[in-house]
Amino acid sequence: MFEFFQTADALEKAGINVRQRDASLKPCPNKPRVIVYLNEDGAPVGFDLAERPGNGNAMIERWAPDNHKAFPTFAVDPVFVAESAHLSSLKKVFKDNDTSSKVIRGAVNGLKESAVPAWSERLAKKLNRQFTMGESLLESASALSEEAAPFIELVRRAALIDYYQFQQFLCESIMSGLAEFPLGWRYHVDACFGQTDKSVTPNTLLVSLELDDWHVYAYPANSPAMFDILNDGILGASASQTGEVDAFGLPLEGYEAPMPKILLPKSGEKPMRSMFSDVPANFRYHRAGADSFPVGSQSRLRMLAAAKWITAPEREGRTWAFLTQKIKVGRSEIQPTIVVIAPQDMPEVPPAFGALFAPLSERAKEVAEVTKYGEVAKIVADAISGAWQGDLSVPINVSVITSYDKGRYKLLMSESYTAEHMLESARRWNEGCANIPLLRYRVQAKKKAYSISPVTPAPSEIISLLSNVWLRSGTEVRATRQVAQELPALLLLASGQQEHDIAVALLTKHVSDQEAVLIALGPTLLRNRELVLPTSDRNAYHHLEILPSILGLLLLKAGRKMEEYMQDSYFLVGRLMSLADTLHEQYCKGVRGGDLPSSLLGNSLMRVALANPVDAFDQLADRILVYHSWARTNRSEESRLAKWTLGLFSEVSEALKQKGVPDMVNSTGKAEMLLGYLAGFPRKNNNSTDTNA
């Protein structure tokens, strides 16, 4: 709540007018809807099908303070129940777009003959309450202006509705409408007709009440202008009367009401704060429910309006971004998680800070046309120059919010940074992802071979990568590891000791999960064979594109720059194993007619080296003698690469002798050794320089 209240302050300070909407006024659900027109006696006299929501159609609101009250639009069960076969037959006509009048008429007649009215006496009681619900709305909106006359008249007429007359009218209107213009019912037929098959969940039909003579008034009762008038009336009725203030210093009125719900992207509507008194934490200060942290209706409205503005779909990539969508990891589900970026000095058009955290969706690419992560920081820097005249000291609040369960959100992170820190973090992210030697390897996906070079990922991509565990020499991958959902934001923005600790912890926990596939990728160029990617993970190809970059990033944040670790013993051990592979491969070509074993020498020793480099070095010294002797004594043209390899082998061995073979491997050492094994060697050809031998 504090985060959204601060955002409301920033919007107010910037002069950005965000209309506060009472929480009881909500958009109608995206369901099929019909409109019933009432005359002065409350009798239904007209019927219309409402257009499908979206595609530029005006958004219709309704008053719905809770799940049991709604007016003047409310949900009902299907009006008829019909044989499933007949309903399916008509839906197939719609799906096939069959315009033959004979076929359509046959399907409609079949449906009409099998349909019987479905509303029960239980629904009659519910609808009779629903018809009078408008009176409760008028009681809560005591300050309505004269412009609300059509709505007040609709409330009066609705209270006069006779349920049985209303049901009869709906039945007749649906049947006659379907017979006259059946193709216009393709969106509504499922909601009007339930099925005899009890296993099929019935759809919901929305019914809107309207005045039959609405045109004599300034606005229809269901128009957006009318709901603006209702909103003003409801807000005016809740104005301060006692002078007491809530936790934010605003009027206390309304603090005992249930906390309003906010709707974050793809997360469902949930209360702003749980006040469930059975939760022990709510008794922490010997107070429970609304008394534990009193928030009046005025504060709630400010926060709701700010939350709606800053998480609006059109601001994706600017003020918010998805860190995770809803995905399954093992037996658990990761819920949608968003990062909200709120500058305390809010410009009318905020810079694309969201693009620093996550790739832009297709729709959000209108925010900034970005093809590579490395371009994002420049775009944001240019925007800052325009928004704040280059002032990089502007504080920016960064919050990470996730769906904790079906009824609650959870705040995972809330920190404040300067614009300068965020730009520097993005620059360091790019630098870290480039903190690796030249790498290239080959994979096969969907029976096609690809050569992969590492790319720089967005921070949000690290979650799906680190949740994977590679098994069986890189031929199987399982998404089983739980990864903190705020990790992308933390890893991007942390600095100093916190940055170091996060990087070391990730290397310690996750490098072992990836070593199977990294070892398997090592000899793919050498053997001119591809690692066949498992089909169980659709993102496996992209994960192998970004995996070395993430290792480089974690090493940089752990204090290991490429210029340093490439001269150190762990990296040299990896290079030595790679050279052993090359020498072994050349020996097989020269002596065994190109018949390669399933595993080359260095590849077979890498797992030993990752656990005990000394033991691996001893085994290598014994087993390489035969290949070394062959390469040294062979004078054929084909042995040139082997002799070149021997030269490099001597150089790396000498460097390793100076550094000493490590007797144990720490968290950064594993990553360095794996990168050393994957790193290519410069090889001069007649016309060009290749990076792998």
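That was protein one. Protein two is written in the same sequence-then-structure order:
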Amino acid sequence: MDEGERDDDDAETVRCWLVERTYTDRGLVDMVYATPDGARVRRKQVSTTVMRQRGQGTSAAVEVDRDDLESVDDDETRERYAAEVERVREQYDPDDEI
């Protein structure tokens, strides 16, 4: 685990990795970024039109304020998110677009 991978309890932000991305029929993208242990997530919904206009892609990881994280209460979902974080971390650098 490198410096950016630490889940330091004193840090204001934590690195979260993309674990889910869903496109809606309303032109939106729902993204879920999870902590490495899958226990906390940040959900984000973005318009595909706005992403295109701003030239934004979807990065493999983002830094999230601890106060903006939600708990994952379901054990199965938490384990699935942790496994997906591991898979994404192995294949991408944090700033890579995926």
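The two ends are 21 Å apart (CA to CA). Keep this in mind for the problem set.
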